[in-house]
Each structure stands twice: as C-alpha cells, then as structure tokens.
Amino acid sequence: MNEQNYEGGVSPGDGQSRESSPNGDMERESFFEGKNMALFEEEMDSNPMVSSLLNKLANYTNLSQGVVEHEEAEDSRRREVKNPGMGTFIGVYLPCLQNILGVILFLRLTWIVGVAGVLESFLIVFMCCTCTMLTAISMSAIATNGVVPAGGSYYMISRALGPEFGGAVGLCFYLGTTFAGAMYILGTIEIFLTYISPGASIIHAQSPDGEAVALLHNMRVYGTCTLALMAMVVFVGVKYVNKLALVFLACVVLSILAIYAGVIKTAFDPPDIPVCLLGNRTLSRRNFDVCAKVLTTNNGTVTTALWGLFCNNSMPSAICDEYFAQNNLTEIQGIPGVASGVFLDNLWSVYTDKGVFVEKQGTPSVAVPEESRSSKLPYVLTDIMTYFTMLVGIYFPSVTGIMAGSNRSGDLRDAQKSIPTGTIMAIVTTSFIYLSCIMLFGACIEGVVLRDKFGEALQGNLVIGMLAWPSPWVIVIGSFFSTCGAGLQSLTGAPRLLQAIARDGIIPFLQVFGHGKANGEPTWALLLTALICEIGILIASLDSVAPILSMFFLMCYMFVNLACAVQTLLRTPNWRPRFRYYHWTLSFLGMSLCLALMFICSWYYALFAMLIAGCIYKYIEYRGAEKEWGDGIRGLSLNAARYALLRVEHGTPHTKNWRPQVLVMLNLDSEQCVKHPRLLSFTTQLKAGKGLTIVGSVLEGTYLDKHVEAQQAEENIRSLMGTEKTKGFCQLVVSSNLRDGMSHLIQSAGLGGMKHNTVLMAWPESWKEEDNPFSWKNFVDTVRDTTAAQQALLVAKNVDLFPQNQERFSDGHIDVWWIVHDGGLLMLLPFLLRQHKVWRKCRMRIFTVAQVDDNSIQMKKDLQTFLYHLRISAEVEVVEMVENDISAFTYEKTLVMEQRSQMLKQMQLSKTEREREAQLIHDRNTASHSVVATRTRAPSTPDKVQMTWTKEKLIAEKLKNKETNMSGFKDLFSLKPNQSNVRRMHTAVKLNGVVLNKSQDAQLVLLNMPGPPKNRQGDENYMEFLEVLTEGLNRVLLVRGSGREVITIYS
C-alpha cells in the first residue's frame, strides 16, 4: 500500500477511523500524549482500554440481566438506592436453616416416624437430604461460574440451559415457592387453632363428624388474614423481614435445643404422660380425665365420664358398646424414655387406610364382629390413608429451603462465596437434626402416640412439645414463630424470582411484573404472589398442599443438576467454577434421584407438573423474545450436530432415506430484495419443514466493497424466509461475477454430510432481451455444474404465477410428463407437494410417451403396477406420438433461431445494423406464422420431407435482399438449418402440442428437462428449445435428475 492511499483513504477492512477535525485531533493528541497508545487510537471507539474495562468490572452491580443490559443500565443503576449487602451467615445460612426447619419438623415428623417406622423414616429423610445435597453441590458449581444477579436459581438455570428451560423451570419454581408460603401459613394457623387457642375458632362444628370441615374453614379465614399481614410486612422492605427473621430463628434454635434437652431428661427422669388404651385401641383424651370404667368411692361404685361416652346412661346396668364391654382399659406411658427399649417396637412401619383405629401392636384385644365405627366414640382414628410414597411427598417440602439464599442473591455482598458455603452448611446442619430426631423420637415415644397426628391421646397437646424440656410451650411458641418466619421468607423470595423472569423479557405477558418501587422492591410481583398464595390457603389441608410443592421443587432441582452435568460434560471454555468439589456423575446421580422422587411421590402430580413446564417451554419457544445466553443446551445441540454430521459423512444415503435437500438460488434486485419470493413459497410447500434447505444468492463485486450490502441482503432473505415459513439456512456469496458465485455455491454450500442434492432456481425470463444477451450463459453453465456435481435440478418457469402458502387449490391436477427415467424424482416431487395444504386436494396424473414400436396398452399396465408398488396413487395415461413429417413451421422456427444466434455472435456490428438485422428476422418470423395455418392441411408421407420453402425460393430471397443489406450480412441467410437442430425443434414443437392438449388446465406441469448440448456453440439454441417446449403452459417445473435412484419399491 503506498503512502498516498494510507493517508487519503481507508478501505472497509481496515477498521473505522475517527472523523478528522482540528478539535478532534487536538483532543486525541492530548489524550494519547505520553500513553504510547497511538497505534491503537483508531480502535479505541469500539475496543476500550483495559484500564477502563477493569474499572467497570470492579464496580459491577448485581442485576437480573446479562452483561450487555448491565452496560446500558449502569448509569441509572447508580442513582438507585442500594439494597443492603448481606454476608453468608445472615444472607444464606439463616434463611436456608429457617426454611428447612419449618412446619414439617414440628407438625409431621413424629407422625411420619410412627407410621413408616424408624428404618423407613430414616430412608425417606436420607434420600431427600442426599437429593438436596447433590443439588446444592451442582448449584454451587453454577453459582460460582460468574456473577449471580437477582433471581438466583432462575438465573442459574436459564443461563445454563437457555431461556426456554429457564423460563419453564423458573416459573415452576416460582409457583412452588409461592405454594410453600401457603403451606407455612397453613402450618402457622394449624398450630394456633389446634395447640395454642382451640377456643379461637370462628366456625364451629354442629356435630362431631363436621369437626374436620370446620377446622379447614377456620384455617381459610385465619390464613387469609395472616397472608394479608405478612404481605404488608414484606412490602415494607426486605431489611425488616431479615430483622424479624432473626427473632423467629432464635425461637427455632431454642425449640430444637429444648427437644434435645427433653430427650436427655427422659434417660433418667421420663415425664409422666399417661395414654389410655381400650384393648389395643388408643382413646382420645379430650372429653375425659380418668382412664377407668368405674371408680370406687366411700359411697360405692361410680361410673366415669368414659363410661358415659360408651354407654347409653351412667348407670352400671346401662347398655354399653360391645367392644367397651369385652375389653379392659389400660394406661401406658406415652413417652417412656430413651432407656425403655421402645425403639425396637418402632422400627417397622404401620401403614393403614383412612378411618382405622390407632392400635398398639402386641397388646391383647377381644375382637367384636360387625362393629359400627361411630364418630361419637372417643377413639383416635387415622385421618388419611398412608403408604411409603405418600409420606415421601409430604416430607420432601421440609428439605426444600436450600434455594432460600440463592433466591435473594441480589441482596448478597458476595454471592459467589456466600451461596455455596451457606447452603451446604445449612443442609449439613439440618440433615443431622432430622436424622437424629428420627432416631430419638423412635427411641423415646410410644408408637401409638407417634401415630396420633394431632395429639388427641395427649389431651390435644403437640406430641413433640410433650417431649421437650422445660415446657411444651417452648416448642409450641417456637414452632409457631418458625413457620411464620418461613412464610415470610417465601413471600420475600418468590416475588423477586418473578421479577427476574419478567425483566428478562422471555415471557411477554409477564413484563408488567418487572416493575416495582424506586428501590427495586417488586410491588406487582408481590401482589400476584399473594393472590396465588391465597389459592393454596383455600385448599386449607397441609397434607394436600405438600405433594404439589414437592413436584415443583424436584423439577427445579432436577434441572439444576442437569445444567451442571451438561456444562461439565461439554467442557465449554466459559465453564470455570470457583467451587471445585463437583463432578458430572454427582450431578447425574442427583438428577436421577430427583426424577425418581417425583414419580415416587405421585406419578400423576409428576406428569401434571411436567405438562405445565412443557406448555411454558413451548410458549416461550414460539412467543417469547429470542435470547442468546450461551446456554448449555445450545452447546449440547452443537455437539450433537457435530456428532451426527461426522456419522452422516461416511456414505451416501440409502434410496429409502433420500429426500430433496434443496439449494434455492435467489436473484436480488438493486435494493438487495428478492426478485421472486414465490420461489421460497414453493420451497416451503415442497419441503414442509423436513430435510435441509439452503437459500443461496450471489452479489457481484468484491467483499470489502460489498460487505454492507451483503449483510442487508442476508437480513432481507432471512426476513422473507420467516414470512414464508421456510426453515433453513441462508448463504450469501460475494463474487467477482455471478457465474463464478453460483458455481461456488453449488460446490461448497452445506457442511459434511448435510449438503444439498438438489438445486432449485427460477427460469431466466429476460434471456431474450438485448440489454442482457448473456443471461442464458449463466443459466446453461449452472445446468452443466449441477450435472457435473451429480445433483438434481428443478427449474420453475413462470414462478410468479406459483401459489403462495396461504392459497388452497380446491381441485385440479398435478401432471407429470415422464419422458425419460433419470432416478424417479418426477414421481417423488408430486407426492411431497401433496403433503402441503396448498396442493393436498390436487390429483396426480402421470403421462408417458409411446413411440411407434411401443405397445401402449402394455406400457399402461406396467406403469400402473410400478405405481402400485411405489405406493403412489395417480391416474395413468400413455400418449402415442405418431412420427410425421417435419413441418415447414419447424424448419422456419429453426432457421430463425439460428439466424438470431448468428446475429448475437456478430457483436462487432453497429447498433443501426443490429436493429436492421433484428427487424429483418422479425419480418421473417411474421411470414413464418402464415405457414402455421396450412401446416395441418399439408399432406404428409413418412418417407419424404414436405417443405413449402423450396431451394429455388430460398436462393431467390437471398438474391433479392443482397443489394439492400450490408456486406456483413452476406453469410447470415446463406446457411441451411442444421439437421440436428431441426430434429430437436421438431421434438420440442410436437411435445409442446401434446402437453398443451392434455395439461393446459393443470395446476402444475412437471417435465423432464433435456440436458444442454455437449458442444457449447449451441447453448442459445438450447434455451430456444426449452422455451418452445413449455410455450403456452402456466406453471411448469422442469426436472433434471441426478442420475441416481431416489425412489424404491422395497420397504
């Protein structure tokens, strides 16, 4: 490059130079003075200096968007009020601990131990804790692989697995967290109404049968009020929630310490908590105090309150319940203590149906036949049917608090450090507490008391409270505040999760929930969360809400594990977690365990949760904004595509697998818009989304000059592909000339085994125009290229008349003219077209041509048999073409064609001469049409050629025009028509007449396309032959096969 070029101009490939102005130059000089950066000054606009980049990265703020959005929003973010930055202990460990040690530990764990036995309970808790630990390991790896903005778990899944999976799982997790809030509130109200203040019920039961229903109604009323109060607290701000959470957590810790203290106390001083048994059945001690039928006093024998419950009056001679009369009353200790040996009795499970007596195993009892189980009798009955998988579903929500810290990652000081440490420590702590509690409950408490869900045998006291020391109220109050706190944590985390999803913009109708108060608090998201939470409260049964949560949480955990496994296996360059203690096998094990637990808990709930996630996935895929987050699923797709391409490349596809893999050649106008958009419509109808489609085009020029136009043209083509619903790839080539560009596309389009085998292009309508005399050369050479590459060729003539995708043909025919067999592509194309709605109602007709020596009847039978074996339904017709004389019209047509060809070769003639020559040919062509009327009446004999133009007439015509024409024309009319050309023209004229006769009204005509002549001198004649062959037809598809079979009769 010389110095003048360097100073004066910049080529497009040399980067963008700044505008030169005196001020600009001075500023630039002062900016780079002493910095030794003049060499890079032209790139500073697009590529910032490292120092400024590091300054920006150091001041990175937690956002729910990606890096690009961060740069755009940075200035506005600095003006916002900063959220409190919390550390590991307060920000992650305590919220996780509080959510995990929630309602299930205090209200259901003793019951689970009693029903499932110590061994199976241990198995349930161990499985669930293992699942959460493996998930936490995967989550830690993802969380430490870059900055985790607000919306923790959702952000991690969506950036690792893509917007579709992220949105689907994120919304499911949001629903799970919201319903968890409902579950905690229901637990709070259950503690309040059952154990703290039973008299606070607003709705009272009219009969003993209605007590359960009345309790549910009371829980709905109180739950709604509590939800409103909690929503108000959350609305005030996350800071106040955290302050309250510390108070609530202190209650939880005290409660757990009270449990351990109570267990230790039972070893040497078991509490006196008698349980009354009738035979082997446990009695509810709400309506009586003394566990005896009669009492002996000074005045004699007096019946007790228990007698009155089982007998029709209080007299000793009263009629009593038969089982009451036959069995004795005994009192046992409800909490005999660690040293009592009750542990062995509680090892095994006792699963029952609903409404069954809670019985002590091994106690003698006199059975009574056909006993009616009246609800008025003070028995303790089971309220639901129990089995192992159901208990897993009820228990699992108690370990689902592991995301409590990551959900509030936007409020953490250092999320990368805090999330792994806090979460894993919380899981270790709570797993130890749960597993030790199972062993201790089984060792301390009598089995019938464990199975008594609501503590009816203990006068309505909380079972775990009776074990605690110094007072049952420590546990009751502690559990009340713990469930309150967990509910507040859920109502804090869920709206932030929804806000993060909304701000990503992947689900259009959620956009409104991305807004909030000035300090970023998600107001609208909180409102929606409260409404969804109210649905859970209206269900009102803790045991019904718990399995629903299990599904949503398990699905979320499963995809966290999948994300980690995929990223690890793909070894993407960006996968560099700071947390080192992970492995893809652990993630895969965690994923498998989550899936197994989903179906163990409830297979129909699992399928329902998957259906919801699938619907959200498809919605985001079709309606959501397109996002490119460098996710693992995209990497997985690329790896799968690479593997498949390497497999495919090893051989040509079998005939059964052959389908047209189409390279569509588009022409562009001066505005870089597509000239024939109907060509893409036809491609869509032919392909129906199956197989490979490459849409190619060529721009003339050099890439450095034309790269902007090339990008614009590519955008236009992609836009049109979207409009026409053409699924495929766009490949645009800039070449010094169109001919070479088309050849390059035919040779190099595609990748490996995914290469095109068919080229589709439009017929060059302007090939006869004088200002474009060589357009036919490009076309004919392209035909030769496809033949050399052993590719099929489809040429659409009158392409602008082809139907759009919205059109529907209600009737009509697709006519196939099978002249020569070149692989069966002619048979396959109509079958593929009729799969599309446009052509579905068209009937297929196949015409073949019989020569004089052929047996047309036998040909028709053979063709019908062939089509039957091909499983293609079509009408068959054999057209007989009788050999007759080559008419004068054919000679005239050939002569005019050759004269025009000669004229095109004499490019050195002046414009005036060319016009005069063209006019002369036009006159001759007009004269030839007068012969058309007589050609049908001319007698024909097969042995002799009949001509109306005799040799003498031709010589006379030549001499007549010799004087008026210039010397350059003396050879133009002296030649006779070439006999080969005459024969070809005869075939074209005859075949055109036959096709017009049969298929003029067809919706589409498919014809064998004859190949170009081997001698390149006759290329322009070849175009004329094709023009004559298709003259008068509306829609024509010229088909030239690749030479290999593409259709088979075998299965």
TrEMBL record:
Keyword tags? Cell membrane, Chloride, Glycoprotein, Ion transport, Membrane, Phosphoprotein, Potassium, Potassium transport, Symport, Transmembrane, Transmembrane helix, Transport
Catalytic reaction(s) noted: K(+)(in) + chloride(in) = K(+)(out) + chloride(out)
Q: Where is the Amino acid permease/ SLC12A domain?
A: 92-265, 387-663
Q: Which residues cross the membrane?
A: 86-109, 121-144, 165-186, 219-238, 245-264, 384-404, 424-450, 462-488, 524-542, 548-570, 582-606
Does this UniProt record's set of keywords contain Ion transport? yes
Give residue ranges for domain SLC12A transporter C-terminal.
677-794, 795-1051
- Mind listing the GO biological process terms from this record? cell volume homeostasis; chemical synaptic transmission; chloride ion homeostasis; potassium ion homeostasis; potassium ion import across plasma membrane
Q: What Pfam families does the annotation carry?
A: AA_permease, SLC12
Q: Which family does it belong to?
A: Belongs to the SLC12A transporter family. K/Cl co-transporter subfamily.
Gene3D superfamilies according to UniProt: Amino acid/polyamine transporter I
InterPro entries, per the entry: AA-permease/SLC12A_dom (IPR004841), KCL_cotranspt (IPR000076), SLC12_C (IPR018491), SLC12A_fam (IPR004842)
Q: Which domain of life is it from?
A: Eukaryota
Q: Identify the stretch(es) annotated as Disordered.
A: 1-28
Under the heading NCBIfam families, the entry gives: 2a30
Q: What is this protein called?
A: Solute carrier family 12 member 7
Report the locations given in the UniProt record: Cell membrane
